[in-house]
């Protein structure tokens, strides 16, 4: 199973996305609630994909990406989760794609697969 | 005719008034000049004759049936009866056969300014006599004087009552609890009452001559229609505006203004009633803020609930029993409805607060209908309702397509909801003068006349049970109206109960003039500027990037309200507008 790192500060969203990605998408999911947790997780094992929430307290999505990128290398796709649009700005930061919040958990794995397949 | 005569008599306001020297003088002259014991100024009422002045008779009135005067007023000519015993019309009368035993009568009718013979000046004697032509002429002259006095009284009383009503008006004006102003054609205050002076914190005396614009909030200066009241284009108008006090603070007020005309019907001053609505505005602001905060706070938990239920329902967390799956479905559907309600409430709140920036571009009505059809066709199929679309291919609109489609989806979606299976919903677009007219027609049960406006209010549905049965949020039409109004268009409903309902939208067609570019880095200011341009019926496109603007073509000019374009090379003329006086300065720039 491929290893996916999910970074979101809201525990409920983490739990829902984790269940959908594991049970429906067949991913092996590790969750992180902050930039620090994400950096720890990515150091321990390099994920195949990262789902990264944009709006987080303290260190937001783009800032977290900056910290993660050296650990991930250039070829690991990072997908932003956002409620705000701004797709172009986010893609310019080197993201592989953007998924709008609120997402439908059942179709989330499909959306992730579509982006990583590009 | 007699009724008209009687009302002309009534209008003189003279019946049953006390004796007056100006009439008594005339009867004294007549009595002396003709050497008769009896002289009268007599008015013929419905059932009596009444004496305004009387010499030689007791009492101030008599039966009309026994009166010589009622015969005299039948003709404009003087009535002379030399001997009553020889005249069959009067010989039997009580005043002839009994006291005062009249033998001689001569009367000349008196006429109102409007031409009605309301009475006579007459003389009478107890012995027969003849009247020569000169004497008749004299009696006529006296009658003319009485006539003038009578009609003059009419005028002077009108004058008095006018003065009285003016005094009453002044008293009401100055003592009213509501603020009142009088404004002249140049937009200056002629008079303001105490209540208004207290609101604006300027003594009433010092307000005279002050231009209204000087005490109006800069953003609200464009909306006063004093000129339209004077030109007769408007009878009255009502608006909400902010007045500014000398210390710079301001208050919200509801102003109702109408024109006051002088006695010749010419516009004199506008009269404004000003009600302080600061408190209501503050409550509205707090309410909107509360709605916004609560709405945003609800979104996060709703998303989680919706997500969890979706996973449960799909069996992701383990297979559910049929009953459990049913319960989860109900929970999920209601969560979705609640989410929709929250989202639409927030949307409406943003539209009302003017925080929605339209992304205007050129589209054809065909594009708009196609995009609408894509959303509503599945709904129509499920309801067994046919959809018909009709639009000319050669029209161009300058609108925010997403927002207009949102409004159309609401209208067509509603029409489907209220249509029986087998019915059809028709959407038609056509040019209509300077506007495009969009009509959405259904064959449903229609809307009662008193509800045609109410359906555009929040949470108002024609039938209270609709809310549950039809699954609407009750916000679709208010949102549609807010969207259309932001496009400077109109939306309304028409219906004959039982014969279906028609919702109509008008949107202004772009005028022949080229569009206007608006540049500002700040989104709210940009939107504000764009709205001001749109209000003038001009197409507008907004820019927040000077480099994109430098590439733009086909614009008449660029309007800017702040700095930020310095050093950018533009082919277009750049006009800086005065943000303090936005509407006027935009109008000037585009003139």
Automatic annotation (TrEMBL), chain A:
Pfam families: Response_reg. The modification 4-aspartylphosphate is found at residue 53. The keyword Signal does not apply. Keywords: Phosphoprotein. The keyword Phosphoprotein applies. SUPFAM superfamilies: CheY-like (SSF52172). Residues 3-116 form the Response regulatory domain. This is Response regulator. It comes from Solirubrobacter deserti. The lineage of its organism: Bacteria, Bacillati, Actinomycetota, Thermoleophilia, Solirubrobacterales.
């Amino acid at each position: 199973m491929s290893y996916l790192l999910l970074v979101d500060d809201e525990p409920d969203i983490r739990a829902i996305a984790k269940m959908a990605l594991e049970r429906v998408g067949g991913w092996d999911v590790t969750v992180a609630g902050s930039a620090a947790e994400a950096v720890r997780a990515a150091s321990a094992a390099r994920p195949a994909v990262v789902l990264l929430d944009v709006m987080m307290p303290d260190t937001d999505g783009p800032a977290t990406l900056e910290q993660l990128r050296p650990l991930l290398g250039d070829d690991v796709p990072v997908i932003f989760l956002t409620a705000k649009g701004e797709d172009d700005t986010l893609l310019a930061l080197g993201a592989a794609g953007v998924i709008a919040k609120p997402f439908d958990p059942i179709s989330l794995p499909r959306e992730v697969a579509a982006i990583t397949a590009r | 005719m007699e009724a008209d005569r009687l009302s002309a008599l009534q209008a003189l306001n003279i019946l049953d008034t006390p004796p007056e020297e100006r009439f008594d003088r005339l009867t004294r002259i007549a009595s002396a000049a003709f050497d008769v014991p009896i002289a009268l100024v007599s008015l013929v009422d419905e059932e009596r004759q009444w004496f305004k002045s009387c010499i030689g008779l007791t009492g101030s009135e008599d039966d009309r049936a026994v009166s010589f005067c009622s015969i005299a007023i039948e003709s404009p000519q003087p009535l002379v009866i030399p001997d009553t015993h020889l005249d069959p019309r009067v010989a039997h009368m009580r005043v002839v056969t009994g006291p005062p035993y009249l033998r001689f009568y001569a009367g000349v009718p008196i006429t109102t300014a409007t031409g009605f013979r309301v009475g006579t000046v007459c003389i009478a004697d107890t012995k027969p006599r003849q009247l020569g032509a000169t004497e008749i002429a004299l009696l006529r002259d006296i009658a003319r004087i009485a006539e003038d006095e009578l009609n003059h009284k009419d005028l002077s009383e009108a004058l008095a009552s006018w003065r009285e009503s003016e005094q009453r008006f002044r008293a009401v004006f100055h003592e009213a609890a509501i603020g009142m102003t009088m404004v002249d054609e140049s937009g200056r205050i002629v008079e303001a009452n105490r209540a208004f002076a207290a609101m604006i914190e300027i003594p009433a005396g010092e307000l005279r001559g002050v231009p209204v614009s000087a005490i109006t909030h800069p953003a609200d200066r464009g909306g006063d229609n004093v000129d339209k009241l004077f030109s007769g284009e408007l009878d009255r108008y009502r608006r909400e505006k902010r007045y500014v006090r000398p210390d710079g603070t301001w208050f919200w007020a509801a102003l109702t203004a109408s024109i006051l005309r002088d006695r010749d019907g010419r516009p004199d001053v506008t009269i404004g009633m000003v009600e302080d609505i600061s408190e209501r505005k503050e409550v509205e602001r707090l309410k909107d803020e509360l709605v916004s905060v609560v709405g945003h706070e609800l979104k996060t938990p709703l998303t989680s609930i919706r997500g969890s239920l979706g996973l449960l329902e799909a069996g992701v967390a383990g297979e559910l029993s049929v009953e459990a799956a049913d319960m989860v479905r109900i929970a999920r559907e209601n969560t979705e409805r609640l989410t929709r309600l929250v989202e639409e409430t927030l949307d409406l709140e943003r539209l009302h607060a003017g925080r929605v920036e339209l992304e205007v571009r050129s589209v054809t009505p065909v594009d708009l209908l196609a995009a609408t059809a894509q959303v509503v066709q599945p709904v129509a199929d499920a309801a067994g309702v046919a959809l018909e679309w009709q639009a000319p291919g050669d029209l161009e609109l300058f609108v925010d397509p997403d927002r207009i489609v949102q409004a159309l989806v609401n209208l067509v979606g509603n029409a489907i909801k209220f249509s029986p299976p087998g019915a059809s919903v028709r959407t038609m677009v056509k040019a209509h003068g300077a506007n495009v007219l969009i009509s959405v027609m259904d064959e449903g049960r229609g809307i009662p006349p008193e509800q045609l406006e109410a359906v555009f209010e929040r949470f108002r549905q024609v039938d209270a049970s609709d809310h549950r049965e039809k699954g609407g949020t009750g916000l679709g039409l208010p949102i549609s109206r807010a969207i259309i109004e932001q496009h400077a268009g109109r939306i309304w409903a028409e219906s004959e109960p039982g014969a279906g309902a028609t919702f109509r939208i008008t949107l202004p067609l772009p005028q022949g003039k080229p569009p206007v570019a608006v540049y500002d880095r700040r989104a709210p200011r940009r939107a504000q500027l764009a709205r001001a341009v749109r209000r003038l019926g001009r197409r507008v496109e907004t820019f927040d990037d000077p480099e994109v603007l430098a590439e733009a073509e086909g614009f008449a000019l660029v309007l800017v309200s702040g700095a930020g374009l310095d050093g950018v090379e533009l082919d277009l003329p750049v006009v800086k507008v005065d943000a303090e006086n936005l509407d006027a300065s935009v109008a000037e720039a585009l003139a």
